[in-house]
Design goal:
The chain has 14 helices and 16 strands. The protein has helices spanning 17-28, 45-59, 65-81, 86-112, 118-125, 127-142, 169-185, 212-223, 256-264, 275-281, 333-346, 372-384, 416-426, 452-462, and strands spanning 5-9, 35-39, 147-150, 189-193, 196-198, 204-206, 227-232, 253-255, 285-289, 298-301, 313-326, 353-357, 362-368, 393-406, 432-436, 442-448. The structure holds aspartic acid (ASP) and magnesium ion.
């Protein structure tokens, strides 16, 4: 049976000519026909495109010129730096120029529009990945490796939720196999844009910030790959944020569930949706460091049955706000809750955590801070219909973080909660909205963001996570 590996390179692994050549050298170690490459935009490019979009929106396309010339310089430097012959250089330059003209024309449209057009936004932010595939394919060709660049708008079919689209796996599978199988059979390496797809009508969509990881596992699912490798700038998933915990360690093995929990609760290394496509087919995902290709990294796979439960990592999700809603006596706790959910559903606002105490109808929810006011207002509005509205009070507390203590089976570890909360008590940190037992893989609680570093430090020590992987 043909073995196939999907490998993805993130923006920091493609930050300049040297990094792009480094990625090409890693890819060159694989057999053409047995590997599909997925690439992100070069580091910083997506942020620049987003800034260009907003600047154009506010002040017209002229105001975006500095961003465009930044991009032009960046790409010119790579084109000059790659060891390409004259014909290849000219061809690459032409392709990049064509993209740039298309971007200019999209920005003209942005200037002309009088509403926030998410379709145009997705088109504008897609250019980073679309330029990357050209550069990486050229870098491979320069090393004598047969490679072809492909835009995933030809491969991945999504719904029309622009900015955060969801893939339609059945339709994508058909397209992916149709386009990529002949290329692989010809022993050519396809270099595919991460992050983007297209609706059934062919309009470009994006899968959300950081979603090139997700692209790689969507491809793995649709092509029945044996393995995914995500090449990044850290040596795998760590026991805690290494910027806070200097002796944080690389975790050698994680289950899909642990990896999903960690990425949801703020570990930056993976896009939260990444595990979804591969779990069903049991395809392992490796996280490896382009700066240290020989290091083992982290393997993410189904959980081995013999493993005993231990805490694997501590992570935090910040940028949250806590909304407390004091209920009115006239409605039941259930009706009260239904109203809150309705209000949020209507605005499509995600609830990170929710707790209710039925006795006094008090409800507390955590939402991302940038939607907190909108959430609070729409909840308050729905409460106005309430006979006893004057008794309900909606309050927003900003600067809240969730801490997640993650490890398979820790819900059944005797004394775990005791250990967690005595560690917090030692640092005088108050925990709110504790959730334990509802997931087999984590214990979570909210704290003030200001307490975050102390909390992780204490927990990392309490669970001796430094001993992991030694
Ligand atoms: N370039 C996109 C972003 O910056 C996608 C990715 O890097 O995964 O969000
Ligand atoms: Mg990323």
């Amino acid at each position: 049976m043909q073995r196939l590996e999907i490998m993805k390179f993130g923006g920091s692994s493609l930050a300049d000519t040297a990094r792009i050549e480094g990625a090409a050298t890693i890819i060159a170690g694989y057999t053409p026909g047995k590997v599909v490459v997925v690439v992100s935009a070069m580091g910083g490019v997506t942020d620049t495109l987003i800034a260009a979009f907003h600047k154009t929106r506010e002040h017209g396309v002229k105001a975006a010129h500095p961003y465009l010339s930044d991009l032009r310089d960046k790409y010119a430097a790579v084109i000059d730096g790659l060891p390409l012959d004259e014909a290849a250089t000219t061809e690459l330059r032409q392709h990049i120029d064509t993209l740039e003209s298309a971007l200019q024309s999209d920005l003209q449209d942005v200037e002309a529009m009088d509403f926030d057009d998410k379709r145009l936004y997705d088109r504008v932010v897609s250019y980073g990945e679309r330029a990357s595939v050209l550069l990486v394919a050229a870098a491979l060709q320069a090393q004598g490796i047969p490679a072809v660049s492909i835009e995933a708008s030809e491969l991945i079919v999504t719904n029309a939720r622009f900015g955060d689209a969801e893939p339609i796996l059945g339709a994508s599978r058909q397209k992916l196999q149709g386009v990529l199988t002949p290329i692989l059979e010809d022993a050519i390496i396809p270099v595919v844009t991460g992050f983007i797809g297209a609706t059934v009508h062919g309009e470009i969509t994006t899968l959300g910030r950081g979603a090139s990881d997700y692209t790689s596992t969507i491809l793995a699912f649709c092509l029945d790959a044996d393995k995914v490798t995500i090449w990044t700038d850290v040596t795998g998933v760590m026991t805690a944020d290494p910027r806070v915990i200097h002796d944080a360690q690389t975790i050698s093995a994680l289950s899909y569930e642990e990896a999903a929990e960690l990425s949801f609760y703020g570990a930056k290394v993976l896009h939260p949706m990444t595990m979804l496509p591969v779990v069903q087919k049991n395809i392992p995902v490796y996280i490896k460091n382009t700066f240290e290709p020989a290091a083992k990294g982290t393997k993410i796979a189904a959980r081995g049955s013999s493993k005993t439960a231990t805490v694997k990592a501590v992570t935090t999700l910040r940028g949250l706000s806590m909304i407390t809603i004091r209920g009115a006596g006239a409605t039941s706790a259930l009706q009260h809750l239904a109203k809150i959910i309705d209000a949020l559903l209507e605005k499509n606002i995600e609830i990170i955590t929710l707790q209710q105490s039925s006795s006094d109808h008090n409800t507390v929810i955590l939402v991302r801070s940038y939607v907190a006011d909108e959430a609070a207002n729409s909840i308050a509005k729905l409460m106005i219909d309430d006979v006893a509205a004057e008794h309900s009070v909606v309050r927003v507390v900003p600067d809240v973080s969730i801490v997640a203590v993650v490890g398979d089976g820790i819900h059944a570890l005797p004394g775990l909660a005791g250990q967690v909360f005595s560690s917090l008590a030692v640092s005088g940190i108050e925990a709110m909205m504790i959730a334990y037992g509802s997931s087999k893989h984590n214990l979570t609680f909210a704290i003030k963001t200001a307490d975050e570093h102390n909390a992780i430090r204490g927990l990392h020590q309490a669970f001796q996570l430094v001993a992991e992987d030694t």
